[in-house]
């Protein structure tokens, strides 16, 4: 057990500082402090010794050098054995038993609009991390606290017998090293962005904060948690505010993210319904309620228990429609008070507010874990414009078909490969997802579309290796097709389209989603 006699406190975040320091002082702990922290404590009538009185040297260089001194680090790093204690005595150094430090607000600084490199650099802490690491290394004899949320726990332990137990010191040391690692990661990532020469750095540094433990993962026997990247700004699932319902599950978060990423692609009123990470309903319309009704009608069976995303504020009319069936979650920029009141009548329904979807998030990368490593890629945010399309058939798509083709291609980008999507009159009427061959996906889409298939258009996430998909499309009355092109047998598919009077355009862009 570690008896606490002397504490060094130097914090940027002063939450709970005065109460904690008063508690230490009441226990007879001598408090040593620096600059602004010492000033705060003295103004609160907490007894404190300035660190310059300990070092015998004033703070210099505008505060850049104040704790980097043997009288500080010797007191922190000394083992409590005869040799080290004798050296401390020889040099008139008093041991420090508790270090309470949190660091300059680097993340908060770089998050400010218009921050300069000079401002960012000035907010890189040097003395703080040095003390934190020293205390954490010597946790056998020194307690280290970097998180104000720990103040109560530490005081409670000290009030019991004036000591910190071994297990608590080890836990605090782990937290301290994670704190400095996260801090350095933020600096390295910021400087990488400033340099901007290499998109994928030689080392990938990630620093995520646990937002919550989850009840379980994809299945009840799998443990899980959700971690948030605090550097990501803009509307996204991680930054969304939950207004109603029970805690999000692992699958809820996956599906809600997929729904939001698809619905934000559209400027006109749009509604997306996701089931098992695939869109089972998507529609655009002049009003949000009409878009919801059309999206729901795409697949009323699969919509049950799904996740709905909308790109406009939810009003009472839309809320009333959605309340008619069981849904897991609803995601939207905002909810009118009367709409929220309607949805709140379902206490388990998760309601998430994202804020305005007009801006993209700052997160440009997708990361996927494999055993032993990570796959990292740019997010697929390519937008296809009509003028970029290449018509390869004798028949040109008419303006109405072109609009539907762009809708279908936008949706197919978010469907698991192999992917086929059918669209008609602003509505997705058939989705074939995740099949091992493209014809199989197409047949599923045709079956789902049923009587609506004639006169619809088809989008494919990748090229047709054979003409068989076109021949099947003709049987169901498909009038136009959009696909990347690029197969060695493209001419066969083009010929088939010409034979059946189908218009076909190439995008030149593949959208695999495995």
Q: Any overview of this molecule?
A:
With 514 residues, this protein is α/β, with parallel strands linked by helices. The protein contains 19 helices and 23 strands. The strands form six sheets. Strands 10-15-14-13-11-12 form a six-stranded mixed sheet, sandwiched between helices. Helix 2 (35-43) links the parallel strand 3 (30-33) and strand 4 (49-50). The longest helix is centred in the middle third of the chain and has 30 residues, at 166-195.
Topology:
Elements lengths: L1 E2 L2 E6 L5 H10 L3 E4 L1 H9 L5 E2 H5 L14 H8 L4 H9 L7 E5 L3 H5 L6 H6 L4 H11 L5 E3 L5 H11 L1 E2 L1 H30 L13 E6 L9 E5 L12 E4 L5 H14 L6 E6 L2 E7 L3 H11 L1 H4 L3 E4 L5 H7 L6 E4 L4 H7 L6 E4 L11 E6 L2 E6 L11 E2 L7 H14 L7 E5 L2 E6 L5 H12 L7 E4 L7 H8 L4 E4 L6 H11 L2 E4 L8
Parallel strand pairs: 2-3, 2-5, 3-4, 5-6, 13-14, 14-15, 21-22, 22-23
Antiparallel strand pairs: 1-7, 8-9, 10-15, 11-12, 11-13, 16-17, 18-23, 19-20, 19-21
Indicate the proportion of strand residues.
15-25%
Helix content: 25-40%
Overall morphology: elongated
Uncertain stretches: none
| Structural Rg | 30 Å
Q: Please state how the strands of the largest beta sheet are arranged side by side.
A: 10-15-14-13-11-12
* Euclidean distance between termini CA atoms: 53 Å
SS-derived structural category? alpha/beta
Supply the number of helical segments.
Answer: 19
Number of strands: 23
The mean pLDDT is 91
Could you describe the largest sheet, including whether it forms a barrel?
Answer: 6 strands, mixed
